[in-house]
Amino acid sequence: MATSVPEDSIMSENQAPPPIPAEEPKYGGFTRFEIELEFVQCLASPTYLNHLASKKYFENPEFLAYLKYLQYFAHPPYLKYLVYPGPTLRNLELLQQERFRTDILSGETVARMVEEGAKAGMEWPSKK
């Protein structure tokens, strides 16, 4: 697994999120922002988190730094681009914890998270 995070993508604690540029280089036809948005939204899926854990991505310090960097999506103006902000940001925050990164390997943890997500989806209309 040779996952490398570009050095310019690692944010320090006090660094502001990247600006959304009007014109940005394209990678395979997509901007870096679009690629990061697509990836961060995938983190809403417990089964995808389990897949990443099974491939040992969560043992890679560069990948963990990238997950920390992606927390900029929790702030305006980036937040508005998330389709499922609740589970996406919740899971991104949970991934900052070593214990969770270990627990997500368990099928029971994945099943519980899927069940909690389905329950929240069914209860949401009544909470409006």
UniProtKB/TrEMBL annotation:
InterPro entries this protein is in?
A: Med31_sf (IPR038089), Mediator_Med31 (IPR008831)
Q: Where is it localised?
A: Nucleus
Q: Biological process GO annotation list?
A: regulation of DNA-templated transcription
| Xref: Gene3D superfamilies | Mediator of RNA polymerase II, submodule Med31 (Soh1)
| Pfam families noted in UniProt | Med31 (PF05669)
Q: Name one GO molecular function term.
A: transcription coregulator activity
Q: State any GO CC term.
A: mediator complex
Q: Which UniProt keywords apply?
A: Activator, Nucleus, Transcription, Transcription regulation
Residue span of region Disordered = 1-23
Q: Assembly state and interactors? A: Component of the Mediator complex.
Per the entry, what this protein does is: Component of the Mediator complex, a coactivator involved in the regulated transcription of nearly all RNA polymerase II-dependent genes. Mediator functions as a bridge to convey information from gene-specific regulatory proteins to the basal RNA polymerase II transcription machinery. Mediator is recruited to promoters by direct interactions with regulatory proteins and serves as a scaffold for the assembly of a functional preinitiation complex with RNA polymerase II and the general transcription factors.
Family statement: Belongs to the Mediator complex subunit 31 family.
Q: Protein name, please?
A: Mediator of RNA polymerase II transcription subunit 31
Organism the protein comes from:
Amorphotheca resinae ATCC 22711
